[in-house]
Amino acid sequence: MTVTTTAAGHHSASLDLGVIGNCSIAALIDRRARIVWGCFPRFDRDPVFCSLIDNHANDGDDEPEKGFFGIELVGMTRCEQSYLDNTAILSSVLSDDQGNAIEILDFAPRFVRYERFFRPPQLVRRVRRISGRPRIRVLVKPSLGIGEEPDEITRGSNHVRFVGADQTIRLTTNAPLSYVVEGTPFAVDQAYSFFIGSDEALRAEIETTSREFLDKTTDYWRDWVRSLSIPFEYQSEVIRAAITLKLCSFEETGAIVAALTTSIPEAPGTQRNWDYRYCWLRDAYFVVHALNRLGTTRTMEDYLGFITNIVDTFSESGAEHLPPLYPITRGGSLTEFEAKNLSGYRGHQPVRFGNGAAVQIQNDGYGAVVLAATHSFFDRRLIQPGKDTLFSQLERMGELAIAVFDKPDAGPWELREKEAVHAFSSVMCWAACDRLARIAGTLGRADRKEYWKAEAKRLKSIIAERIWNEQKGHFVSTFNGQDLDATLLLLAEIGFVKPDDARFVATVEAIGRDLKRGDLLLRYATQDDFGYMHTGFLICAFWYVDALNTIGRSDEAKALFGRILQRRNSFGLLSEDADLKTGELWGNFPQTYSMVGLINCAMRLSRDWEEAF
């Protein structure tokens, strides 16, 4: 997929962005080949490139003042961008009307070195002349702290250091350093490379290292893609989604972030601006399922390791409530605060760092952990020592699920000022008991199997009665409630009801009638802490596609899925939300949930390989 931007186009901030990374850091690149977002030395640290959330709606073609890394072709009229096939390496070809053109290759090094993965907190930008005598202007304007100018800029023979109170960033290049520092245009008469990242000296020749890193990173991604289990149909869509999901994984601990950004609002003019650079337990079940279907066992096992480490820590702590989200290293503060000095995405404030949802009561977390960990007991590809010990710890999760299944919480949508007994939370508590019975069976623990089976049966009876509304003729989102929400589409997926259960079919039909807007879905149609929804939540649309397929409306599901795929940006990526009319993407980006939804739908809707030939 190649996308073209013309200089005459509108270039205010948008989510038409490409992503590069190496499972340690990541960066977002706009349609003019500028790096506009990136945090060092990991996803959840302060952004060094922050212009994505420090701009105004009417910026137009204006250059940001800070927080970006641009390589401009003087007189550029076109920018054509595409990923190198089956990689996370982005090519940007900039050209003018005089026959001058350059290519920029952007990537983060990732490959095996000394029998372990080499993934430094570093980005590489490699520039070469394609035709004519092109001239470029390099603008490197990182921010340190949160949106602050560097305290000091120092120079060496081939590098410049941007020094802040808590971090120093180093740029190493074989381009004329004075031209780079001063933003002076110069001719591209040879290949130039730019290494930017943590303050570590490059201990080899710049051009040779750049070429080596590029070749080895290309080989790594193509080998990784070659190992994927992909459907016959939707191959390119699934490959790009899989690579993006991989880029959102923090390999050191196994955590997978909900998104790479903070404070991209869910809709214009809303206060729904959150920091998504953390790992949510709710996502665990869905992410593990997607990874399993793709056959990415290493990433799946790393992620399960992160989840089971949470179980260990929680069991040792004696805490009464399981937090719904964690930092990617499980340590540090998630205290939410606002950065007043950043103007926000298209001027939308507040800009938030940290996430207050971390202190909420969200009772579905017990089920999410147990469901994710269940793979460790059944998937023989995974090596999970101490299964009896893990089962014992998961049983405590189950006991807590029993204790809270009928208690109010903030729910799956993390309401900040309202609590209720949410159907999804209760069903996930039931799922914890149901899966514990299955695990006990595979461990030969007949007594525990019977105990958890009886508890699952008891909870299911109570929940089914309380979330069924006879008058409405469908399941509802809260105990004894009246309203719908999109998580009810998951009742068959989780196994709470059979796909052909008339109650479930009626609920899917009601959601299609009351929550569907065009090809997208609202999370719910009721007013919450911030008013009503004005954009479609993309994962809900994928859940609806799955539900349609589950109840036998497969042709309709496939047609809808094809239309939803058109909501992806020029690089094949999705954020959290989309405008109901225009389809413009809103919300944090790229959204793991959305990419997982795409993968799961594609796997279920595609013809089998055996049927294709």
From TrEMBL:
It holds the Pfam family Glyco_hydro_15. It comes from the Bacteria. Residues 235-602 form the GH15-like domain. GO terms for molecular function: hydrolase activity, hydrolyzing O-glycosyl compounds. This is Glucoamylase. It comes from Bosea thiooxidans. InterPro entries: 6-hairpin_glycosidase_sf, 6hp_glycosidase-like_sf, GH15-like. Coiled coil: none annotated. GO terms for biological process: carbohydrate metabolic process.
